[in-house]
Design brief:
Chain B: Belongs to the TTC4 family. Chain B: GO terms for molecular function: Hsp70 protein binding; Hsp90 protein binding. Chain B: It holds the Pfam family Wheel. The structure holds two protein chains of two kinds. By secondary structure, chain A is mainly α. Chain A contains 23 helices and no strands. Chain A has helices at about 5-15, 20-35, 35-45, 45-55, 60-75, 100-105, 110-115, 120-130, 135-145, 150-165, 165-175, 185-195, 200-205, 210-215, 225-240, 245-250, 255-260, 270-275, 295-305, 310-320, 320-330, 335-350, 370-400. In chain A, helix 8 packs across helix 10 (about 150-165). Mean pLDDT of chain A is about 80; it is low at about 80-110 and about 405-415. Among the domains of chain B are: about 70-200, Tetratricopeptide repeat domain (Serine Threonine Protein Phosphatase 5, Tetratricopeptide repeat, Alpha Horseshoe), CATH 1.25.40; about 260-405, Roll (Ubiquitin-like (UB roll)), CATH 3.10.20.90. Chain B has helices spanning about 5-25, 35-40, 60-70, 75-90, 95-105, 115-130, 135-145, 150-165, 165-180, 185-230, 245-260, 310-315, 355-360, 380-390; strands spanning about 230-235, 275, 285-290, 295-305, 335-340, 345-350, 365-370, 375-380, 390-395. In chain B, the strands form two sheets. In chain B, strands 2, 3, 4, 5, 6, 8 and 9 form a seven-stranded mixed sheet that branches. The longest helix of chain B has about 45 residues, at about 185-230. The chains are: A mainly alpha, B alpha/beta. The interface between A and B is medium-sized, with 17 and 19 residues.
């Protein structure tokens, strides 16, 4: 990688007073660096460079600002928390590092840098809330990436609550046209990540407010798979709190139809079956399409499965004729992993009630040896599924032997 | 300075004075008979405001009102007075009067936004209780314009939207309200209710659409079945865009089919019977039998195309002859069936053993108003002879030029 002198040189080029063309070339160069693992690691260890990059997001040149945001997105995507990295003791460092960085042997990660300087995250959040800000979406990406890991997630949530409040975020997310230049789709995954934390879930599912209800319609949002996936992920995380299932399934929230709609298809059901369904699922038109993305379909099924943990939840799903929807879905589904999830759900729906004392499946005590066996069974099932999927894929490839394969690029959040 | 005499007297006088009260009332006392009425006329004790304040009858009240509505007072005070007046009427559930007061208050244009907002919101409430939802909505919207976070206006607006069945807008109002008042229970309640109604409305629309589609499909199938059989439908009365009628006949009937117009199948009969396709794929027609000799008709609501005329005639003229058949002539084997080609003034004989389908498929048979009709005459009768004047008779079986 670069030597200390080279690093210092770079840093000097990043000062606001530097000629714009030199600045621009430097940011471009750094962007290139951030595109690979080693470059990222190097950059993350250089707190002063990071500060400089961040400072340049306020640069008058749009091109430079854009580059800087993309650098930050790449760095946040590649966030791997190292064990112990000695703090940078570069004597040439001109910027004021917060004392915490040098005194404590902190993991030198992006989040620490961003949070150490008290102004950074709050500044980002303030810009995010500005309806005129052009790079709001980039900020969403950065935040979304940063919240992937629990520790950083906690930090972001804390700052968020202090500065803007989760409510503001949900408002922006749900208000169409809040910002003409940004679509805020990446707030979806951000909310999903945040709801890993119980504090965030508490806020989302506050009975005295109307928060989670506003997210529900987006399970059907056609225009963005990121937004849809984020919302479904959020709902799934929320359903881990089985104490709230009754409320979630009640009229106050009515989560069930929004989970089922993406899985329901255009197949005609009998009048009897229709009348038993939740209102939103009745008489669906013949052009009704199911959710495209298999991962989202799987998440929806997992969420439904979570809701069957309690006796009350099971009854609710049984009462609302979820079964016909699942039946048609099972016929239609091709992906083996999703089908497996569907079958698990159906088993619970048509199976007998568990014996007394075990009604809440999430609270049942599983003896250790049984748990081990179950885990082994799970692993084995996964392997079999993989095999099945591989076989299916090979068959498909044989069929279209001269058709070019599509390269599904890895979505690791990296912008090149 | 009382003299001794007076002092003496006063004691006695006192007794006298006191005694007087036992028999006489004090000046202007209430009488036992009408004290309630009297009470009612004193403004302070009035339970209800009189409709009109006649200064003669209620001088004190008129006086008070004059004070309230004194034009010399500053507009804010007047407006506030009117607001209070409106509120009083509102409490009595006299919503009409309340609206008048509030309106008067707004007319003052006092410039106090807070007051105007309250006047509008209260007027909206009065309208709401009268069932004037649109007015309630308008007033709530006006109030919201002045003070976008006024809770009562937001609630009233949302409620009016729900009553007007604008459920999407109701949800919007609630969301706006919840931004400013996130924990307000009423708003949350209204939002949930509006959302529920909205989704039910959408379901109803979907259901109706599917039903309509089904009906359309059935109609198409029916018309296709008719067309496949080569049966021609005649539109009852339809203005033709181009020239004469005769050439347009065929066009007209195929137009009827292509238009999928119910008129082509409409029945003039009060029973409202219509041709239908049964599960086995056979058509059943409403059929009219006409007896011009006696000016009578018989109506068969569902004549299967597979049946022949004899099947029905045997039943209709089987055991008992109809009452109008005074000469007892109408036995099935005495009868001759015809259908009329009005255009060409031609009557076509129809053999009784023909099936309905076969008859309908005749080149010159046009089904009028969805109901095929047949003329029934007694063979070789004087009436028939008369009936035939001016018309051509054709035999459907023998005339080779008239091939189906």
């Amino acid at each position: 990688m670069l030597s200390e002198t080279e690093a210092a040189e770079l840093l000097s080029f990043l000062s606001p007073e530097t000629r714009p063309d030199v600045k621009g070339q430097t940011t471009e160069y750094i962007l290139g660096m951030s595109g690979n693992r080693d470059g990222c690691r190097f950059l993350r260890s250089k707190a002063d460079l990071l500060h400089a990059v961040f400072a340049l997001t306020s640069d008058p040149s749009i091109a430079i600002v854009k580059d800087c945001y993309h650098i930050l997105i790449n760095l946040s995507a590649d966030e791997t928390l190292h064990q112990v990295i000695s703090p940078d003791s570069s004597a040439d460092c001109r910027l004021n590092l917060h004392l915490a960085l040098t005194v404590q042997h902190y993991r030198s990660s992006l989040i620490q840098v961003l949070v150490a300087d008290v102004k950074v995250l709050p500044v980002l959040l303030k810009k995010l809330l500005d309806p005129e800000y052009v790079f709001a979406d980039q900020i969403c990406s950065i935040l979304s990436n940063l919240t992937r890991h629990t520790k950083t997630c906690k930090t972001v949530l804390k700052v968020l609550q202090e500065e803007a409040g989760l409510s503001q975020l949900v408002t922006i997310f749900c208000t169409e046209g809040y910002n003409k230049k940004a679509n805020f789709h990446y707030l979806g995954p951000l909310l999903s990540n945040l709801t890993q934390l119980p504090e965030a879930r508490d806020y989302m599912m506050d009975k005295d407010r109307c928060v989670i209800q506003r997210l529900l319609p987006f399970t059907q949002y056609q225009a963005s798979v990121v937004r849809r996936g984020g919302v479904v992920g959020t709902l799934r995380n929320c359903c881990f709190d089985h104490a709230r299932h009754e409320w979630l399934l009640s009229d106050a929230v009515d989560i069930l139809p929004f989970l089922l709609l993406p899985l329901a298809g255009p197949e005609e059901l009998t009048e009897e079956e229709n009348e038993g369904l939740p209102v939103d699922l009745q008489y669906l038109p013949e052009d009704k399409k199911r959710e495209d993305d298999p991962d989202i379909r799987k998440m929806l099924l997992e969420t439904l499965l979570l809701l069957t943990a309690t006796g009350g939840g099971r009854n609710a799903l049984k009462d609302k004729s979820v079964y016909p929807i699942m039946r048609e879905f099972h016929r239609w589904e091709k992906d083996v992993h999703v089908t497996a999830a569907c079958e698990k759900l159906v088993q619970v729906l048509i199976g007998d009630e568990p014996e007394q004392g075990m009604e809440n499946l999430m609270e049942v005590d599983i003896p250790e040896d049984v748990e081990v066996k179950l885990k082994e069974a799970d692993v084995k099932e996964q392997e079999e599924l993989e095999k099945e999927q591989e076989e299916m894929r090979q068959e498909e490839e044989k069929k279209k032997s001269d058709a070019p394969g599509t390269d599904k690029g890895q979505d690791d959040g990296l912008t090149r | 300075m009382a003299s001794k005499e007076v002092q003496h007297d006063s004691d006695d006088g006192m007794d006298e004075f006191m005694d007087k009260f036992k028999t006489q009332n004090y000046k202007n006392a209430f009488s036992e008979d009408n004290w309630e009425e009297e009470f009612d006329r004193i403004p302070m004790f009035m339970k209800k405001a009189p409709e009109e304040i006649d200064p003669q009858k209620y001088p004190e009240l008129a006086c008070l009102q004059a004070i309230l509505h004194d034009e010399d007072r500053p507009p804010e005070e007047q407006a506030k007075g009117l607001k209070d007046e409106g509120n009083a009427y509102f409490k009595e559930k006299n919503y009409q009067k309340a609206i008048l007061s509030y309106t008067a208050g707004l007319k003052k244009k006092c410039g106090d936004q807070e007051l105007d907002t309250v006047l509008l919101t209260n007027r909206a409430a009065a309208h709401f209780y009268l069932g004037n939802m649109r007015s309630a909505y308008n007033d709530a919207a006006a109030a919201k314009k002045i003070k976008p976070e006024h809770l009562k206006a937001l609630i009233r607006g949302a409620q009016s939207c729900i009553e007007l069945r604008n459920f999407s807008e109701a949800v919007q109002w609630c969301d706006e309200g919840l931004k400013a008042h996130p924990t307000d229970k009423k708003l949350q309640e209204l939002r949930a209710a509006a959302d529920k109604h909205k989704r039910a409305k959408e379901r109803d629309a979907r259901k109706a659409k599917i039903k309509q589609k089904k009906l359309l499909a059935e109609k198409e199938a029916l018309l296709a079945a008719i067309k496949d059989r080569g049966i021609k439908l005649l539109q009852s009365v339809k203005p033709r865009p181009s020239g004469s009628n005769s050439e347009d006949e065929d066009e007209g009937s195929s137009a009827a089919i292509s238009q999928l117009s119910l008129d082509g199948l409409g029945s003039q009969e009060a029973t409202g019977a219509q041709v239908f396709l049964d599960e086995q794929g056979s058509l059943h027609w409403p059929v009219l039998f006409l007896y011009p000799e006696h000016q009578q008709t018989d109506f068969i609501s569902a004549f299967s195309e597979k049946d022949c005329f004899l099947d029905h005639l045997a039943i209709m003229f089987g055991e008992e002859l109809p009452p109008w058949d005074t000469d007892r002539k109408y036995h099935p084997n005495n009868l001759q069936l015809y259908f009329e080609d009005e255009e060409k003034d031609t009557l076509y004989q129809v053999n009784q053993e023909t099936s309905l389908l076969h008859a309908l498929q005749h080149k010159r048979f046009f089904v009028k108003s969805g109901t095929p009709s047949f003329i029934v005459l007694v063979k070789i009768s004087s009436f028939s002879k008369q009936f035939f004047t001016g018309k051509t008779i054709r035999n459907t079986m023998e005339d080779s030029s008239l091939l189906w």
